[in-house]
Amino acid sequence: MKLHTFRKRTPIPASAEAVFAWHAAPDTLERLTPPWTRAQILARSGGIEPGARVVLKLRLGPLRLRWVAEHRDWIPGREFTDVQLVGPFAYWHHAHRFLPNGRQACILEDEIRYALPLGWLGEWLAGGYVRRQLERLFTFRHQVTRAAFGGA
């Protein structure tokens, strides 16, 4: 299984602590889910603290997929991660980082390490289609986050 890495970094005009707190709000996942993803939250336990889980239903064409993610590695004001327990990936580890960049600014960084099942087909999809979808998704998420703090 070959791991791929996707990383997106965006300056945000707010402190790391403020952006972290915004991500911890109960409705943030809904705000960060673009309309084209056709994802539905089925269940949620907790917020972003370690052990909290979210269960999603995803539609990819005719496929209906269930995704269960668990939050881990929580550093208040700086970082949290989610890992896939059940879902379409052979491996998924998503680190959300809030890196101070002065007193009232930070860098929002999403780093995802992932692998797909299906051998060579999964490998082909991981490097092309999946990477393009991650770029589109996290461009949207970073724009929403930046706009929440007055950035264009």
Attribute tags:
7 strands; Alpha-D-Glucose-1,6-Bisphosphate, Chain A, domain 4; 3 helices; alpha+beta; seven-stranded antiparallel sheet; single chain; about 150 residues
Please characterize this protein's 3D structure.
By secondary structure, this protein is α+β, with helices and mostly antiparallel strands. The chain has one domain (4-148): START domain (Alpha-D-Glucose-1,6-Bisphosphate, Chain A, domain 4). It is built from 3 helices and 7 strands; from the N terminus they run E-H-H-E-E-E-E-E-E-H. It has a 7-stranded antiparallel β-sheet with strand order 1-7-6-5-4-3-2. It is globular and about 45 Å long.
Topology, please?
Layout: E1 4-12, H1 16-24, H2 28-31, E2 39-45, E3 53-60, E4 63-75, E5 79-86, E6 91-100, E7 106-115, H3 119-148
Antiparallel strand pairs: 1-7, 2-3, 3-4, 4-5, 5-6, 6-7
Strand order in the sheet with the most strands: 1-7-6-5-4-3-2
Q: Please compute the radius of gyration using only Cα atoms.
A: 15 Å
- As residue ranges, the low-confidence spans are none
Give the oligomer, counting copies of the same chain as homo and different chains as hetero.
Answer: single chain
What is the strand content? 35-45%
Global shape: globular
Query: Could you please say which CATH topology applies here?
Result: Alpha-D-Glucose-1,6-Bisphosphate, Chain A, domain 4
Total DSSP E strands: 7
What structural category arises from helix and sheet content? alpha+beta
Mean pLDDT: 90
Q: What is the CATH first-level class name?
A: Alpha Beta
CATH superfamily: START domain
SSE ordering = EHHEEEEEEH
How many domains, in number, for the residues?
1
Give the CATH architecture.
2-Layer Sandwich
Describe the main β-sheet briefly. 7 strands, antiparallel
How helical, in percent, are the residues? 25-40%
Taking the alpha carbons of the first and last residues, their distance comes to 39 Å
Helix run count: 3
